[in-house]
Every structure is written in C-alpha cells, then in structure tokens.
Specification:
The complex is a heterodimer of chains A (385) and B (549).
Chain A: E1 6-11, H1 12-22, E2 27-29, H2 37-48, E3 55-57, H3 62-74, E4 80-84, H4 85-90, H5 92-100, E5 106-111, H6 125-128, E6 136-139, H7 143-160, E7 164-169, E8 177-182, H8 185-191, E9 208-209, H9 215-247, E10 254-257, E11 264-268, H10 272-285, E12 290-295, E13 297-299, H11 303-310, E14 315-320, H12 330-339, E15 347-352, H13 362-373, E16 382-383
Parallel strand pairs in A: 2-3, 4-5, 5-7, 6-7, 11-12, 11-14, 14-15, 15-16
Antiparallel strand pairs in A: 1-8, 6-13, 10-12
Chain B: E1 9-10, E2 25-29, H1 35-39, H2 46-54, H3 58-66, H4 72-78, H5 98-111, E3 126-130, H6 134-145, E4 149-153, H7 162-165, H8 174-185, E5 190-192, H9 200-209, E6 212-215, E7 221-222, H10 238-246, E8 256-260, H11 264-275, E9 279-283, H12 295-303, E10 307-309, E11 312-320, E12 324-336, E13 343-347, E14 353-357, E15 359-362, E16 366-367, E17 379-380, E18 383-384, E19 397-399, H13 410-428, H14 466-469, H15 482-490, H16 503-507, E20 513-516, E21 519-522, H17 532-535, E22 542-546
Parallel strand pairs in B: 3-4, 3-6, 4-5, 6-19, 8-9, 8-15, 9-10
Antiparallel strand pairs in B: 2-22, 7-16, 11-12, 12-13, 12-14, 17-18, 20-21
Helix pairs in contact in B: 2-3, 2-15, 3-5, 4-5, 6-13, 10-11
The chains are: A alpha/beta (385), B alpha/beta (549).
Chain lengths: 385, 549
C-alpha cells in the first residue's frame, strides 16, 4: 500500500462526491432530488472552487439529465451523475438506452422509497426495479465503500463499456457521517487511466451510433452486451483487487463474513450488511455459528461465487429491504434461481425486512435467526417487520 | 489489428435497413407563396430578392425585383407596403422592413447605373399606351421586355404622372424618378409627350394604327365638396396645388391654409404648404387611426407642426373681408363602408366649432376623366370596366391604373400595368403563357420553425429631424446603411422559399435526403416518413404528402 491520502469526516453523499471528483469526469448532467442532492451540491462546490474541471449541466428532468449524460459519454468523455428513487424511475427509458449505446456512465443512486405514498426512507425497490436495464449494479455498505466503488466503477465501466449504478441507502449511508480515507489524486490517476474509447462521436470521424438495424444486428448487439456483462464479473474482481493493492481496501464482489462452519448465513445488500455484521459478531460471541454473506455486486449477478460460497451451508436467510409485489424479495428470488440445482444447496428463507425504511436493529436479526432455525423455509418471502 | 466494430456503431452505411417500407407519408419540397408575395400588388418575389441581399448579391436582387417592377427606388420610398403587415415575422417580433430593403436595391442600381437587360423588338405588333403615369410606364416596360414596340403617349410635357406632378420631392426626389424612367426609355420607347388623347375619334384612330391600345390616363378630375364654392379665389384644388409646387412654383395663397381630406394627397399638400412657410390645418373626416394616408405620413406631418383636426367635417364658410375665412365645422361619426371609398358620416349634434383660414385646399380624391370613352366602351361609376384579362368591352382596348380601380396606390398601378402587358401578350400571341389564377395557400407562421430565427428588432430608417425639414424639400426619410440592410435581410424567414440550409439533409435520421442540383431529393427506399425534415425546416418549404398503399 503506497497511498498517502487523508482521512476526513464525510457523509456517504460527500464520500461519493469525493470519489467522483478523484475520477476526473469531464461532464455531469444532474437533477437534484432528496436524498441525493448533497452529492450534486458538493460537486458544484468542487467545480466552483476550481478543484474539478468538468462541465455540469442541470437539465429540467432526470430523463433529460440521463439523455445528456449518454450524449456526452458517446463523444468520448468520462461522465458521472447521481439520482434517487423517482429520478431513477424517470430515467428508466434512458437507462436502457445508455446500456444499449454502450455508454460507460457511472451513476450513484441513493435508495429511497418509491411513491406513492410519498416518503424519503431507505428502500432498494427503486434500483432493483432497474435490474433488467443492462446496468452493472453495486450496493454499498458505507460511505468509504461508496467512495472506493465510484472509482472502481469507472475502471469497470470503461473496460467492458457498460454503465454502472452504485446504490447506497438513504440516510443510513447518504447522510451518516463517518471517517473516510480519501485517496491521493495520484493514486487514483494511476489506477484510472484517461478514458480513451475506440469509438466516439465526432463529425470528423464518419461514425454514427444508434441507427436502425436489422433483426440479426439487434440480436448480435444483445449478445455483445450479455458477454460484456459476463466479463464484468472478472473485471470487477480484478479492479477490486488492484484497488486493494494500491490503498489497502477491497470488498470483493461478494463478501463471506464469519461463514466458516456456519449453520446459518444471512444474505443481504447495502446498509443492512453493517447491522448484520454486528449481529453476527454478537451471536458468534455467544457461540452461535452464524455468518454474513454480503452481496455487493448485484448485476451481473455473481452466480458462480454465490454457489461456491453457500454450498454446504444448511440454512440461508435472505433479508430484502425491498418488495416486488407478487414475488416478494428480489434478492430472495434471485438467490433461489442462482442456487437451483446445487447438490448441497442450503434451505433458503426469505424475509422482507426493513421495507420502507423500517428499522431493523441487531436484536431483531437475532430473533429472525431464532425463527429460521425453528421452522421450515416458506416458498415465498415472509413479512418480518 | 482490426477489432470488430460493435453493432451499436455504424462506421459504413445503414443501407441494410430499408426503412422506407414503414412510411405513410413522404416529404415533398414545395414553394408556396409567402404572405408578402401574396399581398404584393406587383406579385413580387420578395423572399427571393431578400435572399440575394443576404448573400450580398445586390445585382441579382435588383434583377429579381425588376422582373415585376421597374421602379424599385420609387416603390422603395412611397409604396403603401401591404407586404409588411401580413409578414409572418410580425408574429415573432416585428415585420420585415421590406420597403426599405427595396429602396436600398433601387438606389444601388441607380448609383451603379445598372441598365435593364436589352429587350430587342421581336414581335410585329405595335402597342400604344395612353398615359405616362405609373400604370402606363409599367406596361411600357413589361411590353418592351416581351419584345413589343411601344408608343407611349402623355398629355403632360414630361412622363411620370402622379409621380412627377402629385408626389412631393421630399418623399420622392425627382432625380430618383428621372433615373428610373430614363432607364425604361433606354430600352427604346417611342414617346409622344404633350399629346392629349381624349376624344373618341382620337382613340379610334389609335386603335387603327396599333395592334392594341392600353389606356391608363389616371384619375385627374377632383371630387367636389358641396359645401365649398370652387369659384372663389381662396379655393385651390389639391392636384393643382401639388402640380404647381412640384414644378417649383409657390401658389398664391394666404398665410393660413386649411387642407380638407385625410389621404396621402392631403398630407402631401399640408406638408408642402408647411415647407412654404404656411400655418397648416388638416381637417379630416376620419378619426386619425382610420385616415387613409399612410401612418408615417400622418406622424411626420404632425411632427412638422401641422394641426390635425380629425373626425370632423366642414359645414359652411363665412368670408370676412378683413379677418379672412371662418370655417364652421362639426365633429362627425365616420363609418367606413364595405368597399374602399364607401363611407357614411353622421354629424354629432352641438359639437360645432370654427377654424380661421385664408386659403382652402380640398384634397378628397379624384375620379378618372372618362368623357371621351363613354361611347366607346363600358364604364361603371366613373371607372372603365375591364374583365379579368384587363380588356375593356371594346376589342383591342385594355385599361388599367386609376382608370379602373378605386385602390389609388402607385404600386397597384404598377401591378396593373404589368398585368396588362401579360394579357396584351396573350391577346396577341395565342401561345403566350397563361397566368395561374388559382391562389395557393400561403405559408403561415405555424410551419416556420422559429427556433432558427432569434428575435431581432426591425431596422428603422433615420428621419431628418422635423425642425430641419420645415423649409426644405429634401428627402425626409434616409435610407438604411449596408450593414443595416444585411442585418435586416437576415431577419427574413424566407417563407416558402428554400434557402438550402441543409437542415433536412442533416436531420434526416435515415440519410434519405441528398443534395441534388438546385435542391434535394428524397430516397423512398429509406425515408420512413418521420417528418423531422419538415419540423426542422426554417422556411416552411417541405410538406408531408400522405401516401396510399
């Protein structure tokens, strides 16, 4: 580890802004929305202070913001943006367009309840509803991880030419202050070379993008995107490892925490991982064989890594801070699919916990463990508070 | 190392996708008339010559102008500019200053001494034109261009009619008029001035000598006010007043002049009298906004110190030997009728007032002198009756200008002369082209993409300050500078007239449009009928034509 960065007290949002600043994006189009706005504000502060050489556009909506980001990205410059819940949903059409256009945009989404009714609490339904848009998705456990992931995300996005969405939970992360190690600019520059795509829009180049294509060409294009997504898993692993080599911090695409000989593993994403991590420590101290499996990379879904990590574990409890009405917890559903056919597959219990931002303290998690160990798993997700 | 190009990028062509099969409508390049064009009495291709100005191609602008009007320096000053009020630009900011642009081109042509293209006599038939005013001169020009030998007969010593004897030189300098008339005469015209054709035998004799006769003797007989005793020495007819002052004379009059009338002639008399040092009052039947004079004439007259009493009529006059005339007037409700020139007047009770004066100049309009024509051809309400081919009821006689119309505008007379030339040609040559009489729908603001036309205010010409104009007959309105003219030309929407801006070419998502010769062509294999070209056209020159499968 050679980095000589500084440690400062930052909210998750400001940590994201720092990550974006260090990545030196040339363009951002952003529309303010609670609880994301401090990211945009901090970045405009950086720009005004001359610390960030970028063009910031504030269009009239998130749809236009993403449209502008796509256009800018296709001219061959690095692009960052941020949004939350309704804004992300308004972008939905453009999210598909961005991945289809192979625009390696990096965006931070602050997970917030989706209206209606109106609320501002942490809930991951907004970003999980974008799982089929072709964006790589990360879920972050802390401000530090968000900062590091923004920097990693550009490296991944630009290698596989797919856009990346980094999700952090509203308030638990976005507004919580914690000490954050901010790496040195030289470290980031060393890690993240200037963006120089092979293809980009320029009237002088005689290349165009997004023309009408035949059925065969469209099909080929979808294959290309899928291949790039498959490759994103190894690129994400390599990028994380390289980051760890440089600054000493790495997260993996999934993280198995105290899962050795575990009788039960709790699987979840985002800020809930921190709570579970604490609960696991408590339970382990009392001799209960419980572990945490954190899913950091959600798209592409790291099926092989998950199968390897969970093979032979008797019980898995999935905590979903989201709800897809009609099917239940999205991670629960995905994990069942991922483990299907595994010879020594665990029994999978799906709990809808913390939906709408409901607090899930460590004690509650231990109660869940008690319940799980006394019952057969239900096929469907279970409401657990 | 040639890496495969990702499918999303197109580095060669999109010819593989024949999007034309999706289409329900195909764009079509059209050339509908601009509102200014439809309103122009000489059918001028205004957008076309303004486009030439924008390209600094002043000579081509002039050549386009003279196709329809050999007097751009004259109309550039005194046209009543019916083209400007319907200008689509007026709905964005202000109408284009078309008249001032025309003046610039007209003046440039005179300064550069440009001649009309030569017009050799190519046809056997000879034409006689009676009346050397606007209609007669315009007809002369256009008939000469069509290859006819023309004999132009004028009763006055000089050509020009109302342009020379009616309109004062502070509005139309004589050098400008002479320049544009001489240029017509240089085409080769047999001119007979001081020759009055007024009796039926005169006309019949002409008809026997010429293949066709065009009568454009104007309106020379003053209308009369019943309240006024025209035998009194203190009454001077406006035509006579202007004829004298235009010849440089100072008519015998008292210090206080009352001009009766609200039209251009009334303004001309009033402002001329003011320049001769008189105290001038204009008594107009109409209220100020309804006065038939051009608005700027009225404003300039008031600036020059002329008293305007509007919405009032003369009732009686008392002649006091010492104090002069006392005019008893009354306020009146004026209501315009359905036809131009028709109106009704209702005096408002108990609004009598008096005005003192030494001389009265009535200027309430003039009628044609049809005394020598009445037994030769059909007349109606003091006008000669013509059909849509400009023919009178008597074979071989055509008529135009003020003789046939109540629209007493110089430019209307120019247009009338042009039309007559075309119709005389048709009359004499069976194969001559016919006019398209079906009016095309004109371009509306709705089809102009105004995003391409930033708001810019209209160029306004400088006026000589009113205190410097009162004693001199110098021109009041100054021309625009070259820079002002170029900037003003850029304001033109070029309604219905493609400017070859290439927007359609660049915006077509299927690259179905190609530049071709003097325009564009649409490739039906690829045009999917989206209409982007139409919405991005800044001039309204493309429409979508529905296709039936």
């Amino acid at each position: 580890m050679t980095d000589s960065g500084t440690r400062i007290l930052l909210t998750g949002n400001h940590a994201v802004a720092w990550g974006a600043r260090l990545a030196r994006p040339k363009f951002m189009a952003c529309y303010p929305i609670t609880p994301q706005t401090p990211i945009l504000e901090k970045l405009t502060d950086f720009q005004t202070a001359g610390k960030l050489d970028t063009e910031i556009l504030t269009p009239e909506s998130e749809h236009s913001a993403m449209a502008a980001c796509i256009s800018a990205s296709l001219t061959g410059v690095r692009v960052f943006t941020a949004t939350s819940c309704q804004g992300l949903l308004l972008m939905h059409e453009m999210l598909h367009y961005a991945s289809g256009a192979r625009a390696p945009i990096v965006m931070c989404n602050v997970n917030r309840t989706v209206a209606s009714p109106w609320a501002f609490w942490p809930d991951q339904t907004d970003s999980l509803a974008q799982r089929d848009t072709g964006w790589i998705q990360f879920y972050s456990e802390s401000g530090q991880e968000s900062l590091d992931t923004v920097i990693q995300a550009f490296r991944i996005a630009e290698q596989v030419t797919n856009p990346v969405l980094i999700n952090q939970d509203a308030f638990y992360i976005s507004h919580a202050l914690e000490p954050v190690d901010v790496p040195a600019q030289e470290t980031v520059d060393q890690y993240l070379p200037p963006f120089q795509p092979e293809h980009f829009l320029d009237p002088k180049r005689g290349e165009s993008l997004g023309n009408v294509v035949s059925q065969e060409m469209f099909c080929q294009h979808r294959k290309d995107i899928s291949k790039a997504m498959e490759r994103a898993i190894s690129v994400a692993e390599e990028s994380d490892a390289e980051w760890q080599r440089l600054v000493g911090r790495g997260y993996g695409i999934i993280e198995a925490y105290r899962c050795e000989d575990a009788e039960l593993v709790i699987t979840t994403m985002g800020s809930m991982c921190g709570t579970v991590r604490h609960a696991v420590d408590e339970m382990r101290s009392r001799g209960r064989a419980v572990g945490l499996l954190k899913v950091r990379l959600f798209r592409p879904f790291p099926v092989d890594a998950l199968r390897e990590a969970l093979a032979g574990i008797p019980d898995v409890l999935v905590l979903d801070r989201n709800c897809s009405p009609g099917t239940g917890g999205v991670l629960h559903q995905e994990l069942k699919g991922a483990l299907y056919g595994l010879a020594d597959a665990p029994r999978i219990h799906g709990y809808l916990a913390g939906v709408g931002g409901v607090n899930v303290p460590p004690g509650k998690i231990e109660e869940f463990v008690d319940q799980v160990q006394q019952s057969e798993p239900a096929i469907h997700s279970v409401w657990a508070g | 190392m040639n890496k495969p190009v990702p499918a999303i990028w197109t580095t060669q062509t999109t010819e593989v996708v024949r999007t034309g099969s999706w289409r329900l409508a195909l764009p079509e390049y059209v050339n509908p008339p601009a509102p200014c064009h439809n309103a122009c009495p000489v059918d001028g291709n205004i957008a076309v010559w303004i486009r030439h100005i924008e390209n600094r191609n002043f000579r081509d602008a002039w050549l386009t102008l003279i196709d329809n009007n050999p007097f751009p320096a004259v109309t550039g000053r005194i046209c009543h500019r019916p083209c400007e009020s319907p200008c689509n630009r007026g709905q964005l900011d202000e109408p284009l200053a078309i008249r001032n642009l025309e003046r610039f081109i007209g003046d440039t042509a005179l300064e550069e001494d440009w001649s009309f293209p030569e017009a050799p006599v190519s046809k056997e038939e000879q034409i006689a034109i009676v009346g050397g005013g606007p209609a007669g001169l315009a007809a002369t020009f256009h008939l000469r261009r069509l290859g006819y030998a023309v004999t132009l007969i004028e009763s006055q010593p000089e050509l020009g009619g109302v342009l020379r004897y009616g309109i004062p030189r502070y509005r139309l300098p004589k050098s400008i008029l002479d320049g544009e008339i001489q240029r017509i005469l240089k085409l080769g015209v047999n001119v007979r001035t001081n020759t009055r054709i007024s009796t039926q035998p005169d006309f019949e004799k002409l008809r026997s000598e010429f293949a066709a006769v065009y009568i454009a003797t104007g309106a020379t007989v003053p209308k009369r006010l019943s309240q006024l005793d025209y035998s009194q020495p203190w009454v001077i007819e406006s035509a006579s007043y202007l004829e004298q002052t235009n010849a440089g004379a100072n008519p015998q009059s008292g210090a206080r002049i009352v001009v009766i009338g609200g039209g251009s002639a009334a303004m001309d008399v009033a402002r001329t009298a003011r320049r001769l040092g008189k105290e001038v009052t204009v008594l107009a039947l109409e209220t100020e906004p309804l006065m038939p004079a051009q608005r700027d004439e009225v404003l300039e007259a008031k600036d020059e110190g002329i008293t305007l009493i509007d919405g009032a009529m003369l009732q009686s006059i008392a002649d006091h030997p010492q104090q002069g005339l006392e005019l008893t007037c009354v306020k009146a409700e004026f209501a315009a009728g359905a036809e131009r020139g028709e109106f009704s007047v209702t005096p408002v009770p108990a609004t009598d007032f008096t005005v003192n004066a030494d001389t009265i100049v009535p200027a309430i309009g003039q009628d044609p002198d049809i005394s020598g024509l009445q037994d030769l051809l059909e007349t109606e309400d003091a006008l000669v009756r013509i059909n849509e081919r400009q023919q009178t009821s008597c074979d071989g006689f055509f008529a135009g200008g003020d003789l046939v119309a109540t629209q007493r505008f110089v430019t209307v007379a120019f247009g009338s002369g042009k039309l007559a030339a075309t119709e005389i040609d048709r009359f004499l040559q069976s194969g001559a082209p016919t006019r398209d009489l079906l009016p095309q729908p004109e371009v509306s603001i709705d089809v102009i993409n105004t995003s391409y036309h930033p708001r810019v205010s209209r160029a306004e010409p400088q006026l000589v300050p009113s205190n410097e104009r009162q004693a001199v007959f110098d021109e009041v309105e100054l021309g625009l500078s070259v820079d002002e003219v170029l900037a003003e030309a850029q304001r033109c929407f070029s309604c219905g007239n493609c400017t070859f801006c290439d927007n359609c070419f660049y915006f077509c998502p299927d690259m179905a449009i190609t530049r071709e010769g003097n325009g564009y062509s649409v490739d039906g294999d690829f045009c999917k009928g989206c209409g982007l070209c139409v919405s991005e056209c800044p001039t309204g020159s493309i429409i979508m034509r529905q296709e039936t499968q």
